[in-house]
Amino acid sequence: MHVDTTPIKPSNFLRQIIEHDLADGTYANRRWAGSPGDSAHQAGGQSDPAKIRTRFPPEPNGYLHVGHAKSICLNFGLARDYGGVCHLRFDDTNPEKEDLEYVNAIKDTVRWLGFDWNANGTSHLYQASDYFDFMYRAAEYLIEAGHAYVDEQSAEAMRDNRGDFGKPGVDSPFRARTPAENLARFREMRDGLHEDGSMVLRSKIDMASPNINMRDPAIYRIRRATHHNTGDKWCIYPMYTFAHPIEDALEQITHSICTLEFEDQRPFYDWLLDRLCEGGLLAQPHPHQYEFARLNLTYVITSKRKLAALVYDKRVSGWDDPRMPTIVGLRRRGYTPEAIQLFAERIGVTKSDSWIDYSTLEGCLRETLDVSAPRAMAVLDPVKLVLTNWDEVMGEGFVDDCSAPVHPHLPDLGRRQFTIGREVWIERSDFEETPPKGFFRLFPGNKTRLKYGHVIECTGCAKDAAGHITEVQAKLIPDTKSGTPGSDAVKVKGVITWVAVADGVPAEVRLYDRLFTEAQPDAGGKDFIESLNPDSLKTVTAYVEPSLASAKADDKFQFERHGYFVADRKDHAVGKPVFNRAVGLKDGWGK
Ligand code: ATP
Ligand code: MG
After folding, report:
1. Which residues have CB under 8 Å from 105's CB, separation 6+?
2. Which terminus of the chain has a lower count of CB atoms within 10 Å, N or C?
3. Ligand 1 proximity of 325 Cβ (cutoff 6 Å)
4. What are the two backbone dihedrals, phi and then psi, of residue 581, each rounded to the nearest 5 degrees?
5. CA torsion 78→79→84→87, rounded to 10°?
6. DSSP character for 477?
7. In the chain, where are the structural domains located?
8. Mean pLDDT of the residues in the chain
């Protein structure tokens, strides 16, 4: 069979591994019975229609964040590009309280990012707890084959006897028990005859191994807990390091991709699957684990536990607060699946840890929105500008129609309409009584263009008793309206954006900034709460042009001169507009 392995995307070490495996036919003879299962089950199936199988295995204990997005794009992306399938597997072997809210949110997130676990007419949505029966059987097999034993040492003794980096471990006094004794003991564990924590089942490998993870790691523990899926059926639960390779193998995963922390676990992953293949329990060839560098993003924390703390302590408004690095937060901030996919592609996959600058993520959003987002004018810090000669020049009460392209490079999107009259809103910062050097906008005696409108000449301002500017004044220069003949006869250095008082729409605008002031808020065990940015949210009442009155939730715009904004998916309503700043026009951080 011909497999086209031409790389579509820039290559990386994982793509090279997969391309080699495809060229060598490493997995070509695998069978797939349509569902996960042991070797006998799979042997009854057909030749696997998936050239490779990858998986994304979240623990449903929180909302997914931008780090998970890297893993999702990687696993689903590789499967898509190489004729494979990617499974979505809920890793729920830990009988901790699992929340259906998280399960549903994870499914929504994967779909929203643009991926699908349905392929070849099958839904590849799995939960690891469905494999408990097999895991138990695998444990009994290991005991019978002399590869596992029940250890009754105290937790402290076990820790002491494990040794450390420079010191080999010491064999447990229970290590020499016969398989029959171990099996009887293990069944007692299962039957609830022993206390939580009184004994564990351990693999029997090598207490002197230079890799501490190979010094007889525990594989089953006693824990009386009700599991959301299996209820009270079990009072013993498999350890993650035992469960995970088995989950991969039952699902016929070919390339099991995980983050670098698990590199030292790989020998155990292989040891375990080799033993279970030897025993005929699992189909061969078994999956292989490959490690890549997790995403570390500056000014961001990517730990579900720490993000949960921000939510529960009400430091943010929820998991979907637009400042959160969760995917639901990014979405509400104005991020699109395209921007996140572009980001995942751009940062690539490497084998050594590094920090990605937050501006890389913002750059991807800017790039994707620039080509598509409709433009609009908005005044975020409004002060009134009065055109004092308007009635004289234009006629009392006259309103002049103006228009501008919806998008400068997409003429098919048409033009937006708005008006200009005697009073318009301008940005407070566009006026200076005494201009600093290089300031070309409004100051007494200077000419400036109102974008898409006329040239005006500033004459002064009015102030209240406290000296606060209440109004800026200017004269309209006739025959200078944009788009009319001779409009550029008067040369100006400054152009400002504005919104007419008559048709401007008041809007709540939420100006978000980074949640932390430190680039590595939780590095080295630092208390990330200390570097929370007190100014990460500023809410203003702005005026926006009338074309925005019909904006729908999630619609994205470029507010000219200001950046990209999204109509908030929760709070925005026609008649009560709410916009979130997604990202500025330029990278303004660190300046
Ligand atoms: P957390 O510590 O936030 O709970 P986790 O790794 O325990 O993260 P899981 O739900 O177990 O969360 O992760 C699911 C998958 O996402 C794993 O395969 C893991 O490798 C991957 N992943 C998690 N965080 C990152 C990250 N920062 N960069 C890349 N991949 C990640
Ligand atoms: Mg985890």
Report:
1. 63, 64, 319, 328
2. C
3. no
4. -75, 120
5. 140
6. P
7. 13-129+241-297, 133-238, 304-374+507-583, 378-497
8. 95
Residues in Cβ contact with 541 at an 8 Å cutoff, skipping those fewer than 6 apart: 506, 507, 508, 509
DSSP 58: -
Confidence at 591, pLDDT banded by 50, 70, 90 = very low
H-assigned helices in 199-326: 240-250, 266-278, 304-312
- Containing 13, the helix (H) or strand (E) segment is helix 13-24
Extract the tokens encoding 506. Answer: 């008041």
Q: What's phi and psi for 216, nearest 5 deg?
A: 50, 60
pLDDT band per the 50, 70, 90 thresholds, residue 564: very high
Based on the residue annotation, tell me whether 294 is a catalytic residue of this protein. yes
Which DSSP state fits 442? B
Class of domain 13-129+241-297: alpha beta
* Opening angle at CA 5, ends 109 and 260, nearest 5: 50
Q: Which of 73, 86, 113, 259 to mutate to test the pocket of ligand 1 (most atoms within 8 A of CB)?
A: 259
Q: Of the listed 187, 294, 375, 561, which one is catalytic?
A: 294
- All residues at 6 or more sequence positions from 18 whose CB lies less than 8 Å from its CB, including other chains: 5, 52, 78, 82, 255
- Residue 8 confidence (pLDDT): 55
DSSP-based three-state secondary structure for 118: strand
Give the number of the ligand closest to the Cα of residue 62: 1
Measure 58 CA to ligand 1 centroid, in angstroms: 7
Catalytic, 188? Answer no
Please tell me what DSSP assigns to residue 287. P
Judged against a pLDDT cut of 90, whether residue 162 lies above it is answered with yes
Instruction: Look up 278 and say whether it is catalytic.
Output: no
Same fold, 13-129+241-297 and 133-238: no
Interval between CA 25 and ligand 1 midpoint (Å): 30
- Which sign, positive or negative, has the C-alpha torsion 39, 41, 44, 46? negative
378-497 fold: Ribosomal Protein L25; Chain P (2.40.240)
CB 11: neighbour CB atoms within 10 A? 12
Q: pLDDT confidence of 341, banded at 50, 70, 90?
A: very high
Q: Tell me, what's the pLDDT at 385?
A: 98
Residue 152 burial by Cβ neighbours in a 10 Å radius (0-12, 13-18, 19+): middle
Sheet-wide strand order for 498-500: 494-496, 447-450, 455-463, 469-476, 382-387, 423-427, 498-500
The architecture CATH gives domain 304-374+507-583: Beta Barrel (2.40)
575 vs 591: CA distance, rounded Å: 37
Q: Which two tokens stand for residue 406?
A: 């919806």
CA of 191 to the centre of ligand 1 (A): 34
Q: How confident is the model at residue 588 (pLDDT cuts 50, 70, 90)?
A: low
Residue nearest atom 29 in ligand 1 by C-alpha distance:
294
CATH fold group of domain 133-238? Glutamyl-tRNA Synthetase; domain 3 (3.90.800)
* Residues 214, 219, 222, 225, CA torsion sign: positive
Q: 503-560 pLDDT, tens per residue?
A: 999 999 999 999 999 999 999 989 999 999 999 999 999 999 999 999 999 999 999 9
CA torsion sign for 339, 345, 346, 352 is: positive
